[in-house]
Design goal:
Order of helices and strands: HHHHHHHHHHHH
Largest sheet: none
Number of domains: 1
Helix content: over 70%
Number of helices: 12
Number of strands: 0
Shape: globular
């Protein structure tokens, strides 16, 4: 019985972790559930992308593209509880500090935002907004779906590839109980979705996003003894932007 319910437990765990939509089940969430939940990260990303697309479709008749894209960005932040964006801010404060590796980890635990966090957050929002505004036309909705899916798939790659920095924490559960299969499944989902929606341009966009997750992870490893949950959030944000950034010249 437990084995048969394992995928459902993992899906519910992924939904509860990546969004504000808390599932009442399973009430006894285990480390193994969190590890298996990464199989569904790309699927949850697709769900979030669908939410953004629905909002965009509903608001387009009333407001300009610039305004609707601000609304979409706000909706994405609200639906995720700012989880990934908060990770980006904490990571920027830590990795750019002129400290030792361990001291940078300590800085990332501080809930206060410094100059690097503010700069990184503003640049991230501006780039996301600018790319999304440029991706108007018939491929707009497809680009948003691919962006949301690829960014979560890229996070799964980082979880599998890079060591974890802390001895405990939620991120530790994801790292210890994830498997290479989850990285393959999510990468295939992102690439397959990109090709199905946008042809070779979508495949290139997905590949660029996934590659950026690995590159950002490698850069973070030069500043930290390993990745943390905040780093996963930062990688998610970076992958979103790179996916859109790659699609702009391909689809313009």
């Amino acid at each position: 019985m437990t084995g048969g319910l394992a995928p459902l437990r993992a899906l519910a765990t992924a939904l509860s972790f990546l969004t504000v939509w808390r599932s009442p089940w399973p009430s006894d969430q285990r480390a193994e559930d969190r590890g298996r939940s990464v199989y569904f990260f790309g699927l949850i990303g697709l769900l979030l992308g669908g939410l953004v697309v629905a909002l965009d479709w509903l608001t387009q008749p009333f407001w300009s593209s610039a305004i609707t894209n601000v609304l979409m960005l706000a909706a994405l932040l609200l639906a995720t509880g700012g989880l990934h964006f908060d990770g980006l801010l904490d990571t920027c404060d830590g990795v750019f500090a002129h400290k030792t590796r361990d001291e940078r980890l300590a800085i990332m635990r501080d809930s206060r935002s410094g100059a690097f966090a503010v700069a990184g957050g503003v640049l991230s929002l501006l780039l996301w907004w600018a790319c999304s505004v440029d991706l108007t036309g018939p491929h707009h909705f497809a680009a948003l779906l691919l962006m949301a899916t690829t960014s979560r798939a890229g996070t799964v790659l980082a979880i599998n590839i890079f060591p974890y920095a802390r001895a405990t924490g939620l991120g530790r559960d994801f790292r210890d109980h994830a498997s290479v299969g989850s990285a393959i499944v999510n990468s295939l989902l992102a690439g397959g979705l990109g090709f199905a929606l946008l042809g070779w341009q979508g495949l290139v966009g997905a590949a660029a996003g996934l590659a950026s997750a690995i590159i950002v992870g490698m850069l973070l490893m030069t500043r930290l003894p390993g990745l943390t949950g905040d780093c996963y959030g930062a990688i998610n944000e970076a992958t979103q932007i790179v996916t859109l950034f790659a699609l702009v010249p391909l689809l313009s």
